[in-house]
């Protein structure tokens, strides 16, 4: 074939680009359903079922109008964008052709400014598979276009295209596409791997579940191997449960995460893991966590269910309520301590409970303060209802809660409850300045803009905080072995 003629033919052919999984790694329908569920968790399932009964195009149209997407927050595939810009530089027409609803497709096309034409589902026709192929043949003729796609639904389209451009597709699909189109090009794409799933599970956050062992330390029962094995099962159950709640939280917080400088790289927000896959895995993780919890008895299962209910309410709705969101975060931390007491079948000390509530409330406010400080130039924290002018009050509340925890500790040290556990309860008093220093230091770090992680993770990773924590524990250990 004459190379010059082939080049002319290629330039005269429009480049047709798929949307979901191609131009953007996400599925706009699935994410619209998640947005609608977050906005109306009770009504959404019934409404969506009714729309689906009327046909998938109707479901797409209703969701697109009920929860309009923000195209500025979507992740886009750089390889596809480069191919589109190269085609435009050659003078080719570029067409966005998608099974997504027209309202969503046109919003994305207007935002990018790279398309000459938009073809999409319209509430009557679902422009996917054979229907998309027929529409393109009618518009451009057989072999009259090149097509970039990624899924098995695109095989019918590639069969009518001159050139099949395959991206983000498994090897088997790429080979099948070779049998359909006269020409094929495999474009460098990205596929989710085990590392992405482990990152989404946030295994590093499992360090928070070490709070389950706090009642063991407080009761001085850390020398019982059978009890420690039992507590390890409890730790694993809460680890899996917390990972499942992170999945749920991230699925319902996609837009806010994409507006965040660091969180936009998370596997769900970046589109590396499709929302539909995550939505299927999440309930399985919850069931697995409850199965592990059952090994520690009915009381522990009930505690896990309470944690699940509170964290779900937080993820779906209540994290958008200022101040209450921090109280719930503190409650979720405290529930880990309560779960530890339940797992070891020992009553939880009132002093430990009160101390935990105030300390974790301080950390919850600290977390929100860091997020507010980072978003301050924008005026509002995306996905929350805090404003930039709330920074001083959040800091005041957080510092107040932290110092309240030190007051509780001081009262405990000189209570009758401390007499039975510590041979020298006055020695424990040295822990007070250590705690006051640590609370003040954490808030100073945040105020200086030197805290870029979750506060508890920052504390675990910081050498300064590690030394302070070790000193705090050493004081209590020494006090229980030094005569009064």
UniProtKB/TrEMBL annotation:
It is a multi-pass membrane protein. It holds the Pfam family HAD. Keywords: Cell membrane, Membrane, Transmembrane, Transmembrane helix. The chain crosses the membrane at residues 228-252, 323-344, 350-370, 391-414, 426-444. It is found in: Membrane. The keyword rRNA processing does not apply. Its main location: membrane. This is UbiA family prenyltransferase. It comes from Litorisediminicola beolgyonensis.
């Amino acid at each position: 074939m004459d190379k010059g003629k082939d080049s002319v033919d290629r330039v005269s052919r429009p480049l047709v680009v798929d949307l979901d999984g191609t131009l953007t790694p996400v599925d706009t329908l699935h994410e619209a359903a998640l947005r609608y569920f977050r906005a109306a968790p009770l009504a959404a399932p019934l409404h969506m079922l009714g729309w689906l009964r009327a046909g998938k195009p109707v479901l797409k149209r209703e969701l697109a109008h009920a929860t309009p997407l923000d195209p500025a927050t979507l992740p886009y595939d750089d390889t596809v964008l480069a191919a589109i810009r190269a085609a435009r530089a050659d003078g080719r027409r570029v067409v966005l052709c998608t099974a997504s609803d027209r309202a969503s497709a046109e919003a994305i096309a207007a935002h990018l400014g790279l398309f000459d034409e938009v073809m999409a589902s319209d509430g009557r026709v679902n422009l996917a598979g054979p229907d998309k192929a027929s529409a393109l043949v009618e518009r451009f003729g057989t072999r009259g276009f090149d097509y970039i796609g990624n899924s098995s639904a695109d095989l019918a389209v590639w069969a009518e295209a001159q050139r099949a451009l395959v991206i983000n597709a498994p090897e088997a699909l790429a080979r099948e596409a070779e049998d359909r189109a006269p020409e094929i090009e495999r474009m460098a794409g990205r596929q989710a791997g085990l590392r992405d799933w482990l990152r989404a599970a946030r295994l590093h956050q499992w360090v928070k579940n070490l709070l389950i062992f706090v009642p063991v330390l407080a009761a001085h029962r850390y020398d019982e191997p059978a009890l420690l094995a039992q507590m390890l099962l409890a730790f694993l159950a809460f680890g899996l449960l917390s990972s499942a709640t992170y999945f749920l939280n991230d699925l319902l917080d996609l837009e806010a995460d994409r507006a965040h400088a660091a969180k936009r790289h998370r596997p769900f927000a970046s589109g590396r893991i499709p929302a539909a896959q995550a939505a299927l895995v999440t309930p399985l993780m919850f069931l697995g966590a409850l199965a592990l919890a059952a090994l520690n008895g009915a009381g522990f299962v009930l505690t896990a269910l309470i944690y699940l209910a509170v964290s779900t309410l937080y993820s779906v709705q209540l994290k958008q309520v200022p101040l209450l969101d921090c109280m719930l975060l503190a409650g979720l931390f405290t529930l880990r301590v309560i779960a530890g007491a339940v797992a070891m079948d020992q009553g939880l000390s009132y002093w430990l409970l009160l101390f935990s509530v105030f300390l974790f409330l301080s950390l919850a406010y600290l977390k929100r303060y860091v997020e507010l400080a980072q978003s301050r130039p924008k005026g509002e924290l995306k996905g929350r209802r805090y404003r930039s002018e709330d920074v001083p009050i959040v800091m005041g509340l957080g510092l107040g809660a932290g110092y309240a925890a030190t007051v509780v500790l001081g009262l405990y040290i000189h209570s009758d409850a401390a007499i039975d556990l510590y041979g020298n309860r006055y020695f424990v008093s040295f822990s007070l300045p250590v705690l006051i220093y640590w609370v003040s230091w954490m808030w100073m770090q945040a105020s200086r803009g030197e805290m870029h992680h979750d506060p508890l993770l920052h504390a675990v990773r910081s050498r300064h905080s590690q030394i302070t924590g070790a000193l705090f524990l050493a004081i209590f250990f020494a006090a229980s072995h030094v005569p009064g």
